[in-house]
Amino acid sequence: MAIQISTELLDGCVLGILNQQDYYGYALTQKVQESVSVSESTMYPVLRRLKKNDLLTTYDEPYQGRNRRYYKITPEGQRQFGIIQREWEEFKKGIDKMIGDGQDE
């Protein structure tokens, strides 16, 4: 069974990764794919939307005669990431109560 990831959760994954360090698009997609099943064609619209909402900014760096576009989290993106983290914790607690987390409270 493949569990679908919501837009908000995917945003949180991207912001969480970029909160640790900047990544160029392909490397960021690979990093997300280590934990979540998401296609490259899904990632770029997410990045454009996050940038449009001022949660990310971009800059270019030369690499082997071409430019790589790097994504960097903004202060507003960091605030939004904090909100997503808190909402995730509440959501996770609720799901754990229903399907079990292997721990008794």
Automatic annotation (TrEMBL):
It comes from the Bacteria. InterPro entries: Metal_resp_DNA-bind_regulator (IPR052509), Tscrpt_reg_PadR_N (IPR005149), WH-like_DNA-bd_sf (IPR036388), WH_DNA-bd_sf (IPR036390). Pfam families: PadR. Residues 14-81 form the Transcription regulator PadR N-terminal domain. SUPFAM superfamilies: Winged helix' DNA-binding domain. This is Transcriptional regulator PadR-like family protein.
